Amino acid sequence: MITQFSMAQEGLPIYSDYLTDNYYLIHPSMAGVANSSKFRLTARKQWFGQANAPALQTASINGRIGESSSGVGAILFNDKNGYHSQTGAYLTYAHHLMFSRNPIDLNMLSFGLSIGMIQYKLDETTFLADGFDPLISGIEQSATDFNIDFGFSYQFINFYAHATVKNVLENDGVNFNEQGLSFSNLRTYLFSVGNVFSKFDSEWSYEPSVMFMYRDATKESLFDLNMKVYKEMDFGKVWGGISYRRSLDGAEFLNGTGVSSQKLQYITPLIGVNYKDFIFAYTYSYQSNSVVFNNGGFHQITLGLNFNKRREKYECNCPAIN
């Protein structure tokens, strides 16, 4: 619960969406990195049957500018978590430097910058059922802020690494702590690394990866351990995988007469299919803690389209690029 609320005003939340062939959602340097343009829609819902349960919708598009070394992208998102909600848009510019002598050998360093406009809302209209509270206005508060994300990526054949700083600027927004002071530092650091392994001329490939996240203001940190498996088909490919998310920070709670602690844990299986230029994926996240709000997990559907293919594929087993 604490982790969910701390994510309520950070811009685009960091879930497992990026594992459905959409690293651009969390790393701006991935805009235009592939050999085709990409359009993705995601819809995510938690705790079915519960009022005001967390829900997120995103739409993203990115691609290369002609035959240049630059890429652009855009993200729209709508995130609702209880009485908090945020709607935002990001525009991205990325530049890609090739170090290989052959244009189909992958050895590339990329830089990306996203500029975002985010509208935060806090609905307090139902907070004052009886009486008066000087800290509650009883209206729908809103604030609009700008922020920027910056990052870089390195791709070498089947290996990749990404680093991004999100929310570089300080925003007041509409979140307040118990002293009535706003949280202005939303800075988050993301690091991802992975590699794709396969035997020569095999239809199967395997992609282990890890993602680490650190929030500057709250000193929270967590990591994802991921494994994806791909199988080449006549019509494209099918793939599946699993992700394990673990927080490095615990929370204490009363357990009978004693005090226990737990750390946030998510287990996320995912499955998808690439049919020609179309992509469909389904992701389910289960929170495996002793104390939870609801046993129901996150359900997410991703729809995608690859278009405007502009060059021959790189000679690598790199699903996010080819």
- Mean pLDDT over all positions: 86
Q: How many β-strand runs?
A: 14
The amount of helix comes to: under 10%
Uncertain spans, ≥5 residues at pLDDT below 50? 1-8, 176-181
Strand percentage: over 45%
For the report, how would you describe the main beta sheet? 14 strands, antiparallel, barrel
Give me the strand/helix succession: HEEEEEEEEEEEEEE
Radius of gyration: 21 Å
Number of helices: 1
Instruction: Kindly report how far apart the N and C termini lie.
Output: 39 Å
Structural class: mainly beta
Strand arrangement in the largest pleated sheet: 1-2-3-4-5-6-7-8-9-10-11-12-13-14
General shape: globular
Question: Which helices and strands occur, and which strands form pairs?
Answer:
Layout: H1 2-6, E1 37-46, E2 55-64, E3 70-81, E4 84-98, E5 107-123, E6 140-156, E7 159-166, E8 188-195, E9 204-215, E10 221-233, E11 236-255, E12 258-275, E13 278-287, E14 298-307
Antiparallel strand pairs: 1-2, 1-14, 2-3, 3-4, 4-5, 5-6, 6-7, 7-8, 8-9, 9-10, 10-11, 11-12, 12-13, 13-14
What's this, in brief?
By secondary structure, this protein is mostly beta strands.
Account of the protein in words:
The chain is an all-beta fold and 322 residues long. The protein is built from 1 helix and 14 strands, in the order H-E-E-E-E-E-E-E-E-E-E-E-E-E-E. The chain has a 14-stranded antiparallel β-barrel. The longest helix is centred in the first third of the chain and has 5 residues, at 2-6. The two termini are 39 Å apart. Mean pLDDT is 86; it is low at 1-8 and 176-181.
